[in-house]
Amino acid sequence: MLSKRIIPCLDVHEGRVVKGTNFVQLRDAGDPVELAALYDQEGADELIFLDITASSDNRETMVDVVRRTAEQVFIPFTIGGGLRTIGDIRRMLRAGADKIALNTSAVQNPRLIQEGAHAFGSQCIVVAIDARSNAPGQWEVYIHGGRTATGKDVLEWAAEAEALGAGEILLTSMDRDGTKMGYELELTRAVSRAVSLPVIASGGVGTLEHLAEGLTLGEADAVLAASIFHYKEYSIEEAKRYLAQRGILVRHS
Amino acid sequence: MIGIVDYGRGNLRSVEKALEKVGFEATIMASPAELSTVNGLILPGVGAFADAMQALEQGGWIEPLTQFARSGRPFLGICLGMQILFEIGEEHGEHTGLGLLTGRVVKFPPGRKVPHMGWNSLRLEQPSHLLEGIPNESYFYFVHSYYAEPGEKKDIVATSDYGVVFPAVVGKDNVWGAQFHPEKSSPWGLQILTNFGKWVNEDETLSSHRS
Predict the structure, then answer these.
(1) Which InterPro entries has this protein been placed in (chain A) (predicted)?
(2) Cβ-proximal residues to A41 (8 Å cutoff; 6+ apart), any chain
(3) Which candidate, A94, B22, B78, B209, has a CA 20 to 30 Å from the CA of A123?
(4) Which CATH number fits domain B2-210: 3.20.190.10, 3.40.50.880, 3.10.180.10, 1.10.10.10?
(5) Quick one: what percent of chain B has pLDDT higher than 90?
């Protein structure tokens, strides 16, 4: 049967992995390609690189990271951050990425989802949504790395992304990101039920119990985590062992 | 030397890198004329059945690929590259495939998320060269919305379960297909590419003895 996925996320700033709290206060966490290869060996199911600098002068650095990763890493990996055109997407896929995560550019130009899915297949178009709660049971889409509110409802936007041809949703709770309080389960469950696409839960993992909650109570297909793995609080193996003990189907390698 | 068919579809680079990683030389082939220079062939692919067939047709690949398969040299289709080995695909209407294996390619029935995306385990249905050293229930990375229904049960080498049990590896003589992506299925996917590479090398040795 299909297993649940554990996905380490590498936030890349000027060619280095960094981690912040609530999208600010960056700390260095190592070389992206080295970390990616380590996670592959440890049994990570996929990887996501988010280029959080995302300025055009930095694009060359990121293409190089992708190219070097593709030489050493033999699990699927996704690239996101600052990709605005079909040409940007093509370049990353050619460099060796398997999937592309679109966030700000997808909100500003939803046709990019459609064109990307048409040109390269839905399987490689991931729509990343940064969500912030604005009332109980209601969440708003934010763009520009969480700096700009859009007025869009998260559940409606997720459904629209699916209709446009997205293959997967990467859902980050801005309220929880970097807090180690656990995923926002209500949000995750609501989005999982609003679409029939795989949903990756993101934002707020502090313990292995949180991973299990995201997959069970949150009804997510995959869980994303950054700091608990980067700072060696837990290894991927420990996480998988724990989830298996909880009766959750995970890949053992 | 292993040739990778470039017909404008699929992540060729990762197939090439994975073969290099396990110690085999590969070349990405932009034209069918290069088929004579390789001893084994990989047909990759993502996207839709009809698009892929059309692209192969426009590149003049169809007849040369059929001849390559008949020559007895090892031939491996990956993902959509496996699906188009069959006679008929039902994606967006009925379309003709390469017909190297009998059977059709059909959509997953409703009641599950499609595409089937992620790591699923393999159930080995019969011993084979390609899956040598692969434990039963080992995991591989899949991304697909359609699956093959081979005309001949004996062509099914391994299956996976996604609510329906479907063929994950098929094979007949020298023509093989994997529905998952071995190049993205570390570590067992790399083992399969190793097995394929060894088979190509052995076949190369045999043919040079013959000539």
Answers:
(1) Aldolase_TIM, His_biosynth, HisF, IGPS_HisA/HisF, RibuloseP-bd_barrel
(2) none
(3) B22
(4) 3.40.50.880
(5) 83
Q: Mark yes or no for CB contact B117/A123 under 8 Å.
A: yes
Query: What ipTM describes this predicted complex?
Result: 0.91
* Residues A122-162: tens digit of each pLDDT: 889 999 999 999 999 999 999 998 999 999 999 999 999 99
Answer whether residue B103 shows pLDDT above 90: yes
Residue B74 dihedral angles phi and psi, to the nearest 5°: -60, 135
Catalytic residue check, B79: yes
For residue A181, what is the domain's CATH number?
A: 3.20.20.70
In chain A, which among 52-81 make CB contacts under 8 A with chain B?
Answer: 70-76
Mutate to test the interface with B, among A38, A45, A74 (most CBs of B within 10 A): A74
In Å, how far is A158's CA from the nearest CA of chain B?
15
Judging contacts by C-beta atoms under 8 Å, the chain B residues touching residue A100 are none
Q: Which two structure tokens, joined as six digits, stand for B147? A: 């699956």
Is A130 a residue of the active site?
yes
Residue A253 belongs to some domain of the structure: no
Per-position b or e across A95-123, b if 16+ CB within 10 A of its CB = bbbbbbbbbbbbbeebebbbbbbeebbbb
Q: How confident is the model at residue A252 (pLDDT cuts 50, 70, 90)?
A: confident
- The structure tokens 């890493």 sit at A73
Task: Give the closest of A2, A96, A221 to B14, CB-based.
Answer: A96
